[in-house]
Amino acid sequence: MGNVEDKIFQEALAAIEVGNNTRAKDLLTRLLKQNQQNPQYWLWMSAVVRSNKERRYCLNQVLQFDPQNVDARRGLTLLGDLPLDDSLRVPLQKQQRKWTIPEIAGLESEKVKIPWLRMSLAVAALAVVIGLIFVAFGSNRLWIFQNRQVAVLGTAQSTPTFPATNTPTITITVRNPTATPPWMALIATYTPTPLYVNTPHPIIEAYQIAVRRYQRGDWQQSIQYFNQALQTEKNSPDLYYLLGEAYRQNGQLAEALGAYNQAIQLDSQFAPPYLGRARIALLSEPESFNEITRDLENAIRFDSQMGEAYLELANLQFLEKNWQDAQLNLEEAAIYLPDSPFISIASGKIALQQKDYAKAIEFAKLANQQDQTVLDTYRFLGEVYQAAGQFSDSLEPLTVYSRYAPKDDPQAIAWLGKAYAASGDSDEALQLFAQALKNDRYAVDIYMQRGQLYFSSEKYDLAFDDFSTAFKLKPKLYEACMMKGETQLKLGGPGNAYIQLSECQKLAETDSELARMFFYRAVSLEALKNDVAVQDWERMLNLAPEAIEPEWLATAQAFLSLRYSPTPSLTGTITPRTTQTPSQTSTPPASTPTLTPDTN
Known about the structure:
Low-confidence stretches: 90-113, 132-180, 183-193, 567-600
């Protein structure tokens, strides 16, 4: 530890000693930025963080760098994470006592005398005090109640609304404590969940409590207190909107929709509930976006400065592949939501859809820099790296996202598995794929990714199972169709491979896909010693040259040279050495080949 670090560390300890945990946390965070492998820094950080989840993380970090640290093990034992260990008990002789039992001579032989008179007087005095307390609470004349506000019925007044950055509250779930969580890199604490409207209701104490609970992300408690506030002000559209937001954040979508509708019924020109209703509809994956678009346009019409409505409209237009309008709405949203990471993410998605990977990576990095506490920025950065083929780069952001996301995200877990596979850690990759499929057994992409890993590891039977499942779940997926056929070839079943690959012909959309299908189908026929393979070789060679891989071209020429002998001619054409007409009994006809599937 250098002199500067040591000085900062001593200042942190001094701050802890006087109870200034905020100062100590700031100092320890600075130290951890410089040296994340110092177990003492993590140990003392565990003493100043607020929640048990953060405390667990810090103590686990201590054990990572100092596995035998007694203090960390004792702390995790007290938290219930480690079993009881007698070796961690503090020896009796080392326990400090601030009291001693006085020695009273002849105590055992003395009779206990009960002071009945004193006891009677004490009971009487207690009764008098209790009576005075009841009188005090029943009166409004005492000085302690002179400034007390009494709840009365009131009417909500129209107040201006202000845009807010929608930074979600992070619920920390430590899955594998090996990396620094995003908030540890910042001196600032979490950004509270913002309220788009916050109309003052000073006469309603329940409202003030509900707002505080909402900003802390305590959705259940905020719902309870918003409902209590509505018992006093039943005609306040803003209270119904905020109740709907709390329901939405808590995952109670039907209740949220009801609250938004009630707000609109009370005031049809109140903009925020239209935005909330559109968000609920987007989560239901509707067949048509017309009603959602109408709600978002109403939100903008009634509040032209609602940046979040512009942002949601841009996301909706992105789904409709209306890139130009989406970009215009993002530019409008940026005016009212400056430095919002969600605008950078949306812009990056447009670039990603257009396969401009360099630009998409630039936007993803910008989003992460704008707010490192937003987990979606880590997910998107990992997604972009994966799309660009930079799997190793995707490992760190996906690790952060998957570790601290409030619930499992099967797609992100699968991406993380692919990143581990690319780095050579197949065992970890397979565990992650299994975890992702446990959460979503219909995830076609994950079956395909795991199948590719099995295929590259030459575990063809397992690969075949995954490709078959993917093709069964999505029969029009060209890649699943082809990989199932190619795996059958590896398993030694060319007949079955031929039949499977023939199904892929109608799924091919490009010359490259057709070339791949003709190549592997021709290979299957060659394995069956069937001369119909010549037709597939020739069909492949008649496609655009850029669609044919060099390996496929060389293989086709090698097989064709076995059946064709070069004959000198002016045109340089090739004359067949022998002409074989396939019979229906021995080989399939050229137009509609049919083979009996082999048993492999």
